[in-house]
Amino acid sequence: MKQPKINEATRNKLFSSNSETVISAVRSLKECGNRSYLPILFELLSANPESEVKAEILKLLGTIKDKDTIPVVIDALQNKKYHSIRKELTTMCWQNGLDYSMYFEVFTNLVIDEEWAVAFEAFTVLENLEHFPPDEQMKPIKLKIARALKTANKQKQYFLEELLKMTS
Questions:
Q1: CA–CA dist 147, 119 (Å, integer)
Q2: pLDDT at position 73
Q3: Rounded distance, CA 94 to CA 90, Å?
Q4: What does pTM read for this prediction?
Q5: Quick check: 168 pLDDT over 90?
Q6: Is pLDDT at 3 greater than 80 in this prediction?
Q7: Nearest alpha-carbon partner for 94 in 125, 63, 65, 72
């Protein structure tokens, strides 16, 4: 699969010091954007932009409907570099409604390993899945959930117990 190109003028506008220019560029991505812009948007979010810029980026991410973006998002979720925006990335996954069922384990790990806000968002992604991976893939995940349940706090216990119920 060929990697889509990034328009350099749009890229430069995204990194402008003028927030109106950045917002305009983010809005333009709704029509002419592609998955190659995602790492740029993640970088911008990581840089803790002005609230209007952040809101516009999050609005765009929550409406993405291109299934080819899923691996890019999953890579970012697992990248320590984007730890500060993990909650926002996880939120976008349930907002955009794409099918993340192939990545059930990634979201399960977020429920188990991350702080409560990220765990809640990851649980929401899992709760909204229309189907789950095949049983042979789910067995080790269920064991991992059961092990985590033994040491989880009350809030996480609820999520983990519900995951076990969902997957039984």
A1: 16
A2: 98
A3: 7
A4: 0.93
A5: no
A6: no
A7: 125
